[in-house]
Amino acid sequence: MLTEGISIGKAFGIPLRLHYSWFIIFVLVVWSLTAGYFSVTYPHWSLATSIITGVATSLLFFGCVLAHELMHSLVAQAAGIPIRSITLFIFGGVSQMVEEPKQPGVELRMALAGPLTSLALGGIFLAIWYWIAGVPEFIKAMCFWLGWINIFLAGFNIIPGFPLDGGRVLRSLLWWRSKDLRRATRIASNVGRGIGYLLIIIGIAMIFFGAWINGLWLAFIGWFLENAAASSYRQLALQDILKGHRVSELMTQDYPIVQPEITIQQIVNEQMLTSGRRCFPVVQHNKVLGLITIHDIKAVPRAQWSAKTVGEVMTPLAKLKSVGPDEDLTTVLRILTENNINQLPVVKDSNVIGMIARDNLLSFISVRSELGS
Ligand SMILES: [Zn+2]
């Protein structure tokens, strides 16, 4: 969910994406700056000045959030952790790390880099606002707001609830002391959830006392934090269950195969409807050519089902994601999630030797978590 959005280019070799929610929040920020803050603080401004300053300030603010997030990533890269992409929300971003830091010291430095960047930016904007004479009023106004919002950003992110930066600082310290990453994550995300609930309660109280816009914001942020904390812990627990288990333990080897020359109508009638399976390897002369899934078939209009063959509609092997039999199950989960697919062929020496599906992983996880092992 956190990787959805549109691509906006690269910085330092890291692909940058904007999350869809960014656009909604961006409009809200422009609107509240233009119609709220600037027109109240500077009532003599023309509407055009308010709007232009509002848009420019919002864009610069976005640049500041990007700088914050990039610093996390650059410190991570310097420590040898590759960053796959950065997705930006207006109040922050998520760096998609290929792996989590291996030492608490690395995590500590990575976590601190962002808030320190925001703090420095805040200081620079406030210095311009305070010391530089002869700057036009609208630039002074922008600097003042950007200065405080960056300091607020630093302050908010340093709240010690995982997965916020401060929560990562807390986790790295606990991890360093106890040498137990899972326990450290559990404590830090529980603190995160606690703070989330606290913000919701304060937000609701504020709504009752009339400050309903700020109250709503606070409650929303609290809800977001509680969710993020709970799901990051779940994800870690999930990876803990899967870690160290291999594809070959879980893959299915008895799957029906189909020939490339049969029609879609045939595979639907003779294979899918009778077996309930959603995915079939397409095989000719003992060689796997590709995979045909229910998704491939649904993309073909029903009227053409008796004309099109499986070979024409299947996804060829070269275009398929696959895994090796010795791959870790955490890798399988990552590939399935990232590509939003349900199954992967298991390939060894360019032969398909099995299939591994999301269902296999799910039942593996549910059995293990029910038995608590
Ligand atoms: Zn951060």
3D architecture notes:
- The protein is of the alpha+beta class and 373 residues long.
- The chain is built from 13 helices and 9 strands.
- A 4-stranded mixed beta sheet has the order 1-2-3-4. Strands 5-6-7 form a 3-stranded antiparallel beta sheet.
- Helix 2 (47-78) runs antiparallel to helix 3 (104-131).
- It is elongated and about 80 Å long.
- The two termini are 28 Å apart.
- The mean pLDDT is 85.
- Bound molecules: zinc ion (ZN).
Summarize this structure as a short list of keywords or feature phrases:
four-stranded mixed beta sheet, 373 residues, single chain, alpha+beta
Derived from helix and strand composition plus strand pairing, the structural class reads: alpha+beta
For the secondary structure, the number of strands is 9
| Arrangement of strands in the largest sheet | 1-2-3-4
Biggest sheet layout: 4 strands, mixed
What compounds sit in this structure? zinc ion
Strand fraction band?
5-15%
Helix content: 55-70%
Indicate the radius of gyration in whole angstroms. 26 Å
Topology of helices and strands:
Layout (H helix, E strand, L loop, with lengths): L5 E6 L2 E5 L1 H22 L5 H32 L4 E7 L2 E6 L6 H28 L5 H21 L7 H14 L2 H28 L3 H31 L4 H4 L13 H12 L3 E6 L2 E7 H5 L11 H4 L1 E2 L12 H11 L3 E6 L2 E7 H14 L2
Parallel strand pairs: 2-3
Antiparallel strand pairs: 1-2, 3-4, 5-6, 6-7, 8-9
Helix pairs in contact: 1-2, 2-3, 2-4, 3-4, 3-5, 5-6, 6-7
Concise account of the structure shown:
By secondary structure, the chain is α+β, with helices and mostly antiparallel strands. Helix content is 61%, strand content 14%. It is built from 13 helices and nine strands.
